[in-house]
């Protein structure tokens, strides 16, 4: 008889299993590319600055470089006349001087300048090395390169950056009902691939989206085997639960080993973790919201940990708008939208159904309810991970 029950692996155990499989067969290659092409890539080494920026004390305004001491006690009624100065443009060295008087704050008279207020040393000056110091750590190995990381790299003297080449990942939708454009009754639009593509490309994975394969064990098995020749990791979408057409577990077992079927998370419980020819094969639940969270909270987290990558995910803190109950025994991901009420972030809980993409569309982020918590009271300040 078919077993309709799920065992539920603890989420951290599931992550550890993925991490272990990955480390056993997949090491990340590296490539050196222009920093202009490095958007969304992870740095593959530490970078120390070759430069000091600014390289010397420079003017922060167009004006006259002076020695501030000569202006102490200066007022409107007691102006200072200064002979020893140098005309400087913004960014120019002020060597020999320590402050800059903007052109508009001085009058020029017979080759001397007349000023009406006092200046302090370093006023209107950018100090040597105030932005970047030589030998300073610019970027850490494993950091996701943001726009300003790359600015920093260039300021520090680099035009190219060594980054990790991310693996090739395949997304195989299953189900004969799935089509790109619905033409007849019974068909459904295949859109989970959009979530997969976006989420993984965000981190530089090389994504392959396949045509849906029908619910036929032989065809599914053959397809997975074929994909494993070309891709580093294969994701099979849907058919993960226990319906009569849910064949993913059978297909993976026929080819290799199913290590996990069922993770104690909500949504996303029917997830499958398998190993075929040493490679990772993941069965993602068919519901879009479930799939999103399995990718984000299980797969990507394990992946980043396996290779010491820092994706720099952002979160904010918000007050819970109403009490939130959750099942003990599952780590739950609850979508929220954020409103600003009287200057405070308030998290409004959105629909929790795993098949409704509208809840993700409206969501600004989500709250993680730990596995052993069944209630969070209204008014609690919680971390919201931004989507
Ligand atoms: N008897 C049980 N039934 C279900 C259980 C259970 O424990 N026992 N778990 C439910 C949960 S929780 C989830 S999550 C889903 C997982 O479903 P499957 O992975 O088996 O996926 P399917 O049943 O094949 O598809 C479900 C549904 O998802 C949509 N879908 C699938 N693929 C795509 C795609 N590529 N693009 C867009 N939409 C897709 C489609 O609407 C399917 O109808 O199982 C519950 N059932
Ligand atoms: O695990 Mo399902 O993903 O709860 O909806």
Automatic annotation (TrEMBL):
<dbReference type="InterPro" id="IPR005111">
    <property type="entry name" value="MoeA_C_domain_IV"/>
</dbReference>
<comment type="pathway">
    <text>Cofactor biosynthesis; molybdopterin biosynthesis.</text>
</comment>
<comment type="function">
    <text>Catalyzes the insertion of molybdate into adenylated molybdopterin with the concomitant release of AMP.</text>
</comment>
<keyword id="KW-0808">Transferase</keyword>
<comment type="function">
    <text>May be involved in the biosynthesis of molybdopterin.</text>
</comment>
<keyword id="KW-0501">Molybdenum cofactor biosynthesis</keyword>
<dbReference type="Pfam" id="PF03453">
    <property type="entry name" value="MoeA_N"/>
</dbReference>
<dbReference type="InterPro" id="IPR038987">
    <property type="entry name" value="MoeA-like"/>
</dbReference>
<dbReference type="InterPro" id="IPR036688">
    <property type="entry name" value="MoeA_C_domain_IV_sf"/>
</dbReference>
<dbReference type="GO" id="GO:0061599">
    <property type="term" value="F:molybdopterin molybdotransferase activity"/>
</dbReference>
<keyword id="KW-0500">Molybdenum</keyword>
<dbReference type="InterPro" id="IPR001453">
    <property type="entry name" value="MoaB/Mog_dom"/>
</dbReference>
<keyword id="KW-0479">Metal-binding</keyword>
<dbReference type="GO" id="GO:0046872">
    <property type="term" value="F:metal ion binding"/>
</dbReference>
<dbReference type="InterPro" id="IPR036425">
    <property type="entry name" value="MoaB/Mog-like_dom_sf"/>
</dbReference>
<comment type="similarity">
    <text>Belongs to the MoeA family.</text>
</comment>
<dbReference type="Pfam" id="PF00994">
    <property type="entry name" value="MoCF_biosynth"/>
</dbReference>
<dbReference type="InterPro" id="IPR008284">
    <property type="entry name" value="MoCF_biosynth_CS"/>
</dbReference>
<protein>
    <recommendedName>
        <fullName>Molybdopterin molybdenumtransferase</fullName>
        <ecNumber>2.10.1.1</ecNumber>
    </recommendedName>
</protein>
<dbReference type="GO" id="GO:0006777">
    <property type="term" value="P:Mo-molybdopterin cofactor biosynthetic process"/>
</dbReference>
<dbReference type="InterPro" id="IPR005110">
    <property type="entry name" value="MoeA_linker/N"/>
</dbReference>
<dbReference type="Pfam" id="PF03454">
    <property type="entry name" value="MoeA_C"/>
</dbReference>
<keyword id="KW-0460">Magnesium</keyword>
<dbReference type="GO" id="GO:0005829">
    <property type="term" value="C:cytosol"/>
</dbReference>
<dbReference type="InterPro" id="IPR036135">
    <property type="entry name" value="MoeA_linker/N_sf"/>
</dbReference>
<feature type="domain" description="MoaB/Mog">
    <location>
        <begin position="170"/>
        <end position="306"/>
    </location>
</feature>
């Amino acid at each position: 008889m078919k077993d309709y029950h799920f065992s539920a692996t603890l989420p951290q155990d599931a992550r550890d299993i993925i991490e272990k499989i990955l480390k056993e067969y997949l090491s990340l290659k590296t490539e050196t590319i222009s920093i202009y092409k490095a958007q969304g890539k992870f740095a593959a080494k530490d970078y120390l600055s070759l430069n000091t920026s600014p390289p010397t004390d420079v003017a922060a305004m167009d004006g006259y470089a002076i020695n501030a001491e000569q202006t102490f006690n200066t007022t409107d009624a007691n102006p200072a006349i200064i002979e020893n100065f140098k005309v400087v443009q913004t960014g120019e060295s002020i060597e020999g001087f320590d402050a800059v008087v903007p052109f508009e704050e001085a009058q020029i008279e017979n080759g001397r300048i007349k000023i009406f207020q006092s200046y302090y040393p370093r006023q209107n000056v950018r100090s040597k090395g105030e932005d970047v110091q030589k030998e300073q750590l610019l970027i850490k190995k494993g950091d996701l390169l943001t726009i300003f990381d790359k600015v920093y790299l260039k300021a520090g003297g680099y035009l190219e950056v060594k980054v990790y080449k991310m693996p090739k990942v395949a997304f195989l939708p299953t189900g004969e009902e799935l089509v790109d454009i619905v033409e007849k009754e019974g068909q459904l639009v295949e859109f989970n691939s959009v979530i997969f593509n976006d989420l993984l490309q965000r981190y530089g994975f090389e994504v392959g989206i396949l045509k849906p394969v029908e619910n036929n064990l032989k065809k599914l098995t053959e397809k997975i085997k074929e994909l494993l020749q070309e891709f580093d990791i294969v994701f099979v979408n849907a058919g993960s639960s226990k319906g009569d057409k849910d064949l993913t577990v059978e297909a993976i077992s026929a080819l290799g080993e199913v290590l996990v079927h069922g993770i104690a998370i909500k949504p996303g419980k029917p997830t499958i973790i398998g190993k075929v020819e040493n490679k990772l094969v993941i069965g993602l639940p068919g519901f879009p919201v479930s799939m999103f969270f399995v990718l984000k909270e299980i797969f990507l987290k394990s992946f980043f940990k396996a290779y010491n990558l820092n994706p720099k995910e952002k979160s904010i803190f918000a007050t819970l708008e109403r009490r939130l109950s959750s099942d003990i025994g599952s780590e739950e991901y609850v979508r929220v939208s954020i409103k600003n009420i009287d200057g405070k972030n308030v998290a409004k809980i959105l629909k929790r159904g795993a098949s409704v993409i509208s809840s993700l569309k409206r969501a600004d982020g989500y709250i993680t309810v730990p596995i052993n918590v069944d209630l969070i009271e209204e008014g609690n300040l919680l971390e919201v991970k931004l989507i």
